[in-house]
């Protein structure tokens, strides 16, 4: 028996499993939409050891795509889903708080809330004691969507981990959470004042200033 192989190791059986896996993978690539097929070829054939950040991004894109296909049946965009999901848990947030929790810039939130208000999903209100902040509240229609849309997200999550054991899923969660924590530490430990996330206005101003500097050079 070759060193390192467990007792009962069957080379022929293992090779058959690998061959079936390869055939299934090829079938998946061939049957996928062009964009998804190219992404799968990238990871399986072209650059299988590409950076982890790209793999996380593509996994996220795939989950978003799967959910968006289902949301479309209910005439809801993924962008609106993002804000609805937050408001279902914390109704009445200010637009600024909504931006922070969604991880998007204020103009994006403003545009989304405006569209959702026209669709009758939310309404904006100002409290008598504070006219400065605008709060976003779900309408009855917006709240009712929760029972129809949340199961769709749960379905996508279940499909995404098909073939994985509970232990593997637990490990994946641990790995991803550790990545988030490590990058959070990196951000909080940074002493460089320029290393921060700029607002849309700040970023536009910075790009304009650099453009003027290049023209003057």
From TrEMBL:
<dbReference type="GO" id="GO:0003677">
    <property type="term" value="F:DNA binding"/>
</dbReference>
<dbReference type="InterPro" id="IPR036388">
    <property type="entry name" value="WH-like_DNA-bd_sf"/>
</dbReference>
<dbReference type="GO" id="GO:0003700">
    <property type="term" value="F:DNA-binding transcription factor activity"/>
</dbReference>
<dbReference type="InterPro" id="IPR036390">
    <property type="entry name" value="WH_DNA-bd_sf"/>
</dbReference>
<dbReference type="InterPro" id="IPR000835">
    <property type="entry name" value="HTH_MarR-typ"/>
</dbReference>
<keyword id="KW-0804">Transcription</keyword>
<dbReference type="Pfam" id="PF01047">
    <property type="entry name" value="MarR"/>
</dbReference>
<feature type="domain" description="HTH marR-type">
    <location>
        <begin position="49"/>
        <end position="181"/>
    </location>
</feature>
<keyword id="KW-0238">DNA-binding</keyword>
<protein>
    <submittedName>
        <fullName>MarR family transcriptional regulator</fullName>
    </submittedName>
</protein>
<keyword id="KW-0805">Transcription regulation</keyword>
């Amino acid at each position: 028996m070759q060193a390192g192989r467990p007792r009962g190791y069957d080379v022929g059986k293992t090779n058959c499993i690998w061959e079936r896996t390869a055939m299934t993978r090829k079938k998946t690539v061939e049957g996928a939409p062009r964009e998804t097929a190219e992404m799968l070829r990238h990871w399986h054939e072209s650059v299988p050891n590409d950076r982890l950040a790209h793999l996380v991004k593509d996994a996220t894109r795939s989950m978003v795509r799967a959910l968006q296909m289902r949301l479309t049946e209910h005439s809801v965009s993924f962008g609106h889903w993002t804000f609805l999901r937050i408001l279902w848990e914390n109704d009445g947030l200010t637009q600024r708080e909504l931006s922070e929790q969604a991880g998007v810039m204020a103009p994006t939130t403003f545009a989304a809330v405006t569209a959702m208000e026209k669709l009758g999903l939310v309404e904006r209100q100002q409290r008598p004691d504070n006219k400065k902040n605008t709060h976003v509240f779900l309408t009855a229609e917006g709240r009712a969507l929760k029972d129809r849309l949340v199961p769709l997200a749960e379905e996508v999550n279940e499909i995404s981990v098909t073939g994985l054991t509970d232990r593997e899923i637990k490990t994946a969660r641990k790995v991803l959470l550790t990545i988030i924590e490590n990058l959070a530490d990196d951000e909080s430990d940074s002493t460089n004042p320029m290393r921060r996330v700029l607002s849309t206005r700040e970023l536009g101003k910075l790009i304009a200033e650099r453009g003027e500097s290049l023209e003057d050079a």
